[in-house]
Amino acid sequence: MTFESFGLRPELLRALADRGYTTPTPVQSHAIPGVLSGRDMLAGAQTGTGKTAAFTLPILDRLSRAGRAARPRALVLVPTRELAAQVAESVRHYGTHLPLRSAVIFGGVGMQPQIDALRRGVDIVVATPGRLLDHAGQRTVDLGAIEVLVLDEADRMLDMGFIHDIKRVLRLLPAQRQNLLFSATYSNEIRELAQRLLHDPLEVEVARRNAAVDSVEQRVFRIDKDRKRALLSHLIREGQWAQVLVFTRTKHGANRLTKQLETDGIGAAAIHGNKSQTARTRALADFKGGRITALVATEVAARGLDIKELPYVVNYELPNVPEDYVHRIGRTGRAGATGKAVSLVASDESGLLRDIERVLGRRLETVELPLISTPALVPQPAASPGRVVADRRVATPQRAARGRRGAPPSHERASSSTERLRSPVRRAGPWPRRNGSRPGNA
User: Fold this and answer.
1) Taking a C-beta distance cutoff of 8 angstroms, is the pair 277, 109 a contact?
2) Rounded Cα–Cα distance for residues 149 and 151 (Å)
3) What is the pTM of this model?
4) Which residues are CB-contacts of 232 (< 8 A; sequence separation ≥ 6)?
5) Which domains does the chain carry?
6) Rounded mean pLDDT, 241-270
7) Coil vs helix vs strand at 48
C-alpha cells in the first residue's frame, strides 16, 4: 500500500515526498481511510507508530477540499505542551503546500501571540485543555464550527486529571462532528470515555493491548537506591552513549540527577513542569542537536517528545502507574528501528516492577551489574554539605572537616577505582553505541 492509494490530494503527497515518506505505517494504513470516510474512531497506537500523521493527513485533506473558513474547523486536544508543539509542527509540515492555517495553544507562554494568530483566522487548533478554556473564557476562540475533534493520548489526559476540562470543551462544540480518540493504552476509563464520545466507531489497534513495542530490548538492573547514579554514569561512559532519555519520578529528583551527571562530566539537562517553556525548548534543542548527552525528564514533561533515532531510555525510577512504563520506553524503538530500555530497580520498587510485568504479560530480563570503573577526575571546588565531590562520595560536615585537616595538594587528581556491584544473576555488559541511521517517523 502507498499513500497514493488513499486518494490524498497531490499537495499532501508532495509534502510526504519532501520528507521522504513513501509507505504508510500499519496505523496509517488502517486509520487514514477510516478518517476520510467520516467515521468516528477509537485507535490504540503506541508512540512511534506514526499516529500523528494518521489523523493529520486526512483532516488536512478534508478541510482543503472545502476551502477556507472564518472559524476553526478541526480541534486536536493533547495533554502537554511538548505534544502540542509536535502535532502543530506535523500539521505545518504536511500542510505546507495547502492554503490552510493552524494555531497551537498551550500554557506557560504569553496569550497575546496566540490571540493574534486566532484573530488572523485558523482552520486547525492544536491545544492543551486548560489554555484552550482560558481563550474560550476570554472569547478569543470560537469553537462553534468544529467539524473534527481529536483526543490524542487520551489515556494520559485522563491520568493527568483533564476529564473535567475535556467535558467543558465538549460543551463548546457542535453536537454533529467527527470524533477521533487515540490512546496508547486501553483502561476502563478510556473505554467509558469512548462510549460517551464516539458513535459507531471504527476500532483500530495496531499493537497488543498495553504491550511495549516489540522493537525495544528491555533490561533490569537490581541495585541499591544510592548506587543508581554511579551505575548510570558507568553505562553512559562505557557504552559511549551519545543520547539517552532518563526518567525520574519527581521534579526535584530530575534537578538533582542532572547536577550529579554534570559533576561526572556528562552533559545533561532537566525538563519538567517547573521549568519555563523557554528552558524546556532549549533543553530539548540541545539534546536533539547533540550538545548534551542526557535529558532527564519527569513523565509528564516527556509526554509527546518527538526525538528521532533515540537509542536509549533509562527508568532511573520506575513509574507509579505501570502503563506509564509503556509510554516511557516507547520513546525509543520508533519507526521500526530497535531501541534499548534500562530500568534501575531498588528493593522498594519490586512491587512496581511486578505491576509492570503484569501489564506486559511477561517477565523482564534481569542482568548482573557490571564492574563499575570510576575514572580520575579533575579537582573540583570545595564541596558544600551535600555536594558530590571528586571521589563520588557525598560530602558531609564531618568529611569536610577531615578534608580540611588532611586534604591532598590541589594539583593531585583523584585515583581511579574499580568496584563490583554485586548481583546473583548473570552479567551483561553495557550496550555499544548505536551506529547508522534509520528513516524518520511520520
Assistant:
1) yes
2) 7
3) 0.60
4) 246, 257, 261, 314, 316, 344
5) 3-205 (3.40.50.300), 216-375 (3.40.50.300), 376-415 (no CATH)
6) 94
7) coil
Residue corresponding to grid cell 585515583:
415
Angle at 228 between CA 222 and CA 234, to 5 degrees: 105
- Give 406's contacts (C-beta < 8 A, 6+ positions apart): none
Q: Residue 328: CB partners within 8 Å, gap ≥ 6?
A: 247, 299, 302, 313, 315, 319, 341
Position 427 scores a pLDDT of 45
C-alpha cell read off for 85: 508543539
Pairing of strands 371-374, 417-420: antiparallel
Residue 414 has pLDDT above 60, yes or no: no
Tell me which residue has cell 507508530: 49
Q: In the prediction, which pLDDT does 330 show?
A: 77
pLDDT(217) > 70: yes
More confident residue, 118 or 306: 118
Cell digits of residue 150: 481529536
What is the Cα 114 distance to its own chain's centre? 24
Residues in the chain: 442
Using DSSP's 3-state secondary structure scheme, residue 368 falls into strand
> b vs e for 296-314, b when ≥16 Cβ sit within 10 Å of the residue's Cβ?
bbbbbbbbbbbbebbbbbb
| Mean model confidence pLDDT for the chain | 81
CA distances from 260 to 100, 300, 376 (A): 47, 22, 16
**What number of H helices and E strands is found in the chain?**
16, 16
**pLDDT band at 22, cuts 50/70/90?**
confident
In which residue are the cell numbers 571521589 written?
391
Q: What sign does the dihedral 323-329-335-339 (CA atoms) show?
A: negative
The three grid cell numbers given for residue 79, joined into one nine-digit string: 495533554
Round to the nearest angstrom and report the end-to-end CA distance of the chain.
15
Q: What is the DSSP code (8-state) at residue 370?
A: P
Going by DSSP bridges, is the β-strand pair 244-247/294-297 parallel, antiparallel, or unpaired? parallel
